[in-house]
Amino acid sequence: MDAVIDAVAAVLGGAGRLPAAQLRDLGRQPYEPVWRAMQAFTDARDAETPDELWLVEHDPVFTLGQAGKDEHVLMPGDIPVLHVDRGGQVTYHGPGQIVLYPLLDLRRLKVGVREYVDRIEQAVIDTLGEWNIEGGRRDGAPGVYVAGAKVMALGIRVRRGCTFHGLAFNIAMDLSPYQRINPCGYQGLQVTSVVDLGGPSGLDAVKPVLVDHLARQFGLTVETAEPLSF
User: Fold this and answer.
1) I need a surface site. Which of 100, 196, 201, 223 has the fewest CB within 10 A?
2) Active-site residue, selected from the candidate residues 184, 210, 211, 220
3) What is the pTM of this model?
């Protein structure tokens, strides 16, 4: 980890000069306004714009990525379905899930897209490890799994070297909506949550741990900022 921090500092022109990311906890929000705000932030930012980390808990929604196939949405019922501009297939967002949107300038951090995905997955694996839960990866299926069941889904977009969208980490939620879809495009894929694995049931217990591990992965310092208004 020290090597990562030193490398980032060197890129920025001196030891200790780490990029400060603004952390915004948006609370519970509908999906679309946050998505549009991410797009606007990414379009407006320049080389001097500080990176941001947005934490949010979404109202129930199914989202389909750019390559998403409607056939994987089996019976949405009263849960809305949105076609969005991230990668990946269909997933579910709802109460009891931490959604974290890293809005990072990968060019400034000197991080490639594949490495970006690996570091996000590792941050979640390390977070699970704080509660002695052993998470892992699956070849060709981004995200984090525990005993074959998916606990974190990952869908990203990179525009002009800058990231938006992000990760959805199941903490303590009603998992039944996943039965209405083929999660991430996989029929019969099992999903789980942190509380069902013996971890905490409160999002507030997990958020700071997740943010800390993500910041470590990218060599970021983090400053708390005001939430946005929607």
Assistant:
1) 223
2) 184
3) 0.91
For domain 19-224, give the CATH number.
3.30.930.10
- Two tokens at 73? 């949405």
Cα separation, 220 vs 211, in Å, equals 10
CA distance 56 to 28: 6
> Catalytic site residue 162?
no
Instruction: Specify whether the CB–CB gap between 171 and 165 falls below 8 A.
Output: no
- CA–CA distance, 11 with 7 (Å, rounded to integer): 6
Sheet holding 61-64, edge to edge: 81-83, 61-64, 90-93
pLDDT in tens, 182-205: 999 999 999 999 999 999 999 999
The per-residue pLDDT for range 51-89, each reduced to its tens digit, is 999 999 999 999 999 988 999 999 999 999 999 999 999
| Long-range pairs, 150-154, Cβ under 8 A, ≥24 | 150/183, 150/184, 150/189, 150/190, 150/191, 150/192, 151/124, 151/191, 151/192, 151/193, 151/194, 151/197, 152/121, 152/124, 153/88, 153/91, 153/183, 153/184, 154/88, 154/117, 154/120, 154/121
